[in-house]
Specification:
This protein is 66% helix and 2% strand. The protein has 239 residues and is mostly helical. It is globular.
Length: 239
């Protein structure tokens, strides 16, 4: 019964979806999802391909404040929760709130593309990862696997923080996920994920500050300036 209630509005909305009308206003939000594989290839090239082809000088990102943040392997939980946070709500908005999906994707495109440009102009890295761990447990083993898989380059601004901000911004504007409970959930999730990046020594606190700065600019463009420009254009058409 619950599955039927969830599926019915989706089936009704996408009943008329065809290749021929994929670019229509009703369905063109789906095309924005193509950014993900494009971004993935670009980021993979930055991480793996360019260092093989060119001698890149990476600038180390760190500050005195990093020394006061202890390593804590338990933050690997919110760190990996980030993937569920992005994918879960992205799929939800794709199916149930196309306009929020558009806002989420455009904010993501603005922030991630800006970050890629920063990585190209100012290649950076961090050297904060511990060589010895204070504890030996399952979560430490997961962190070791993370260190082996993920490089310590291209860290500032933090993609983890930016991705969380994009979901948080969209969540705060969602009409289906409204109410203070949801607002608190989105904010707390974003804060915990952001904290995880520094407690796992995946990022310097500078990376978080830089992501907040990029996020603030992109929020102003996407959620403040964009709607005002659109409303002015609409007003001109009616005059």
């Amino acid at each position: 019964m619950i599955l039927q209630k969830l599926a019915t509005p989706v089936v009704d909305y996408y009943r008329d979806l065809r290749w021929s009308n994929l670019r229509s206003r009703k369905y063109n939000h789906i095309l924005l999802a193509l950014y993900w594989p494009i971004y993935g290839l670009i980021f993979l090239s930055l991480e793996r391909l360019l260092p093989l082809l060119f001698d890149i000088t990476y600038h180390e990102i760190s500050c005195a404040q990093d020394a006061y943040i202890p390593f804590n392997e338990f933050f690997v939980i919110p760190y990996y929760y980030w993937f569920l946070f992005l994918v879960g709500f992205g799929v939800f908005w794709l199916l149930y709130e196309p306009e929020i999906f558009r806002q989420w994707m455009w904010a993501t495109i603005l922030m991630y593309t800006s970050t890629v440009i920063i990585y190209l102009i100012y290649p950076n890295m961090q050297a904060l990862r511990p060589t010895e761990f204070p504890r030996d447990n399952l979560f430490t083993d997961i962190v070791k696997g993370l260190y082996e898989f993920d490089t310590n380059t291209n860290v500032c601004p933090s993609i983890h923080v930016l991705g969380s901000l994009a979901v948080c911004f969209a969540g705060l504007h969602s009409k289906l996920l409204h109410g203070w409970g949801w607002k608190v959930f989105f904010v707390v999730s974003t804060v915990l994920i952001s904290m995880s990046t520094v407690f796992l020594k995946q990022h310097s606190i500078i990376d978080v500050y830089a992501a907040l700065a990029v996020g603030a600019v992109c929020y102003a463009l996407q959620y403040w300036l964009g709607p005002r420009i659109a409303s002015r254009r609409a007003a001109k058409k009616h005059t």
